[in-house]
Each structure stands twice: as structure tokens, then as C-alpha cells.
Amino acid sequence: ESRTGPVHPRWIRINTVRTTASDQQETTFKDFEPVETVQDVVKSTKKAICFDPHIPNLVAVSPGTDFTKTEAYRSGAIILQDKASCFPAYLLNPSPEDGDVIDSCAAPGNKTTQLGAIVHSRSDNPATIYAFEKDKFRAKTLERMVRIAGSDGFTKIAQGQDFLKVKPNSPEYENVGALLLDPSCSGSGIVGRDEMPELHLPEIPTPGSAKGKPNKSTKPAKEDRKRKREDKEVKPTTIMVDDDGKETEISSEKELQARIDALSGFQLTLLLHAMKFPAARKITYSTCSLYAGENEHVVLKALESEVARTRGWKILKRQDQVRGMRDWPVRGDLAAAGGDQEVAEACIRAYKGDEHCVMGFFVAGFVRDPTATPDEE
Ligand code: SAM
């Protein structure tokens, strides 16, 4: 079994602010042969293309073409974005009734521009997207990407703005109904990155464990578990690179756990902050991490929080999700979700190296329970 798994296709999002899928089929992808599935793309010996069955305006194409040199890329008509990274904005599904939208951790802007395409397609007078980015340097990239993608007319970028310092009750945000949270994380789901092979945190679920199958790597025998709990030294020291480039030296399981704990503390704080926006009715929370500590555990803690209970925030159940996400088969880990079947089913996961050919990813949606807040509906 190979670590990297099957050949990775190139995922491309067609940016409908600038173009249409049929225009791109006739121009950028004119030499690509249409096939049915992503597996057909991967197996094809020719240049192949398939339209994704889950995410609108997303295609998988054979690797090997440098799309960054194409006119479509330069003009913002196409955006190179992994399929799993398209899940949060699609799941958030902002509609004109939701009002304005916040992207709390926005650079480089893949999801901001995808939100732009969604709101643009649904109204001649799109809602405002407020995009926050704490890192000034990364905010410049965000600004450039939003401009090239054609969303600058309705996207307000707050460069160097820490989302945690934004006041939810500020009049500027009184119409914000939907928030996308894609905070910094361990980046362990990024394709091509080794997920710390020397370290086996018991909380990294793998596909299948949610179905209750015994899983040797995550459910070792009792003595084995005890041994694993003891801090194991790792030689040489592993450098953990977060998805936003921050490097942390990790030389033991204890240090890895401490790093995950620090990240998940920040992620939960961010999520609870988002839940305080007065008109908010939808939130998505996502990471490109495989660790349950940054994923299902954050979701469970948020649901149990005072702010979620008093404001009526609930998990967005699978059956209430937008069709493509409801149909996506890879769900949260049951054990990591505390045995709560509904929460596990509501959580959306992706694992790198499997037949879906996407990056490792996690996303969950939250909605405000209208019965808990009748005055605001
Ligand atoms: N959503 C982005 C995309 O799809 O292109 C990727 C976001 S990346 C995972 C996380 C970003 O959040 C980083 O650029 C980081 O600088 C920024 N960030 C971290 N903490 C933040 C905070 N408190 N407020 C605003 N931005 C923050």
C-alpha cells in the first residue's frame, strides 16, 4: 500500500463571476476528453476531464498541464482548488435571505472567492462579504486573489484584522447571517505532507473506524495503548508546519498533543466568537487537519458551550445539508464524536490517498435553532 495513494488529479473550480462552465469547456478544456468519474480521469492515458458530482462548477482533470500559464487562470476564470477545500463555502450555502457573510480567516482567498461566486450567482445586488485576515502579508495575496476573481466589488477586506477583536454587536455586522471559519490548523490533511509517521496519537481516526471496525492504528490493545500513552521520543525532531506556514518543532507525542491542544483551543474560541453575531444563522467550521482534536472534539465542545445553548446553535444535520454534501459519503468519526451518531453523520470528512482523490479535510455546519430564538426569526 502506498503512502501517497493514487495519482492526484488537478481540481479546478470554474469561477462563475468571470465565466461559465460551457465557455471553459470550449476554450481552456477543449482538448480534454469528458469522462464519467474522477477514477476515469486518474486512469485515463489521454487528457481527461470530469464534472464533479458533488460540487457545482468543479472539474477534475488529468495532471500534467500547467494551468497557471493559461489565460483562464490569469484572468480569474479558473481557480486551482482541491475538491475538499470547496466543501465549506458550498455547505454554508449563503442565500440572499442570509444577508451579509463573514470569512473570518480568509487568506489566500480560495473560499472567499468561492463565496463570492455563490452570492454573485444569487443576486444582482450581492450581499457584502467581510473577509478578515490577521497576517498583513497574506492579506495582500487575499486582496490580489479577490480582485482577479472579480469579487472585489462586494468583498471588504480587513487587512491585518484579528477576527477575535471584531465586535459582534458592531452596527456594521448587524446583517451578517452566515460565517465561514477556516482557521489555522496543523495542516495534517495536506497532500504530500507526511502526517508525522513516527507519532500515533490515539485520536487520529482513519476511514472505517467510524463504522466500528477494529482499527489497529487507532485502537491498539490495552498494553499497547498504555505504552503509547507514555511519551515517546521522536528522532530526529519533526517540524510541524501549520497550514499557514507556522513551524513548530515536535520531538515527542506530548509535544504534538500540546500543539494540537493549543490549536484546538484557538479554533474553539474562534467558533464561539462567531456564534455571538446577533443575526447569524449559519456557520461552517473547517480544517485541513486529520486530528480529531481539531475536528469532532471542537464541534462537541462548541455544542456544549454556554453560547451555543443560550443562542440556540445546533449541528447542521446531514439530511438538512445542501445536496452535494448530503450525498458525500465520508462522514465524521463516531468514536471521536463521543458516540453521537447524529453528530458523526453531520460532520464531513475527507482522507487523502483514497478513491476520492482529495486532500484530508474536515467540515461541520451549525445552524441556529429557530425554536430557541423565536424573536429573531
Ligand atoms: N480560508 C483560506 C482559503 O481557503 O484560502 C485559508 C485560511 S488558512 C487555513 C488560515 C488563515 O487564517 C491564515 O491566513 C491565518 O493568517 C489567518 N488567521 C489566523 N488567525 C486569525 C485571526 N484570529 N483572525 C483573522 N485571521 C486569522
UniProtKB/TrEMBL annotation:
Establish whether keyword RNA-binding is in the entry: yes
Annotated S-adenosyl-L-methionine binding lies at 105-111, 133, 162, 182
Q: Which GO terms describe its molecular function?
A: RNA binding; RNA methyltransferase activity
List keywords of the entry alphabetically.
Methyltransferase, RNA-binding, S-adenosyl-L-methionine, Transferase
Q: Disordered: where is this region?
A: 199-249
Q: Where are the transmembrane segments?
A: none
GO BP annotation list: rRNA base methylation
UniProt feature, compositional bias: Basic and acidic residues: 220-235
Q: Does the keyword NADP apply?
A: no
Active site per the UniProt annotation: 288 (nucleophile)
Q: Which GO terms describe its cellular component?
A: nucleolus
Limits of the SAM-dependent MTase RsmB/NOP-type domain: 1-369
* Highest rank taxon of the organism: Eukaryota
* Family, similarity comment: Belongs to the class I-like SAM-binding methyltransferase superfamily. RsmB/NOP family.
Can you say what this protein is called? SAM-dependent MTase RsmB/NOP-type domain-containing protein
Upper taxonomic lineage: Eukaryota, Fungi, Dikarya, Ascomycota, Pezizomycotina
First and last residues shown, out of full length: 131 to 507 of 601
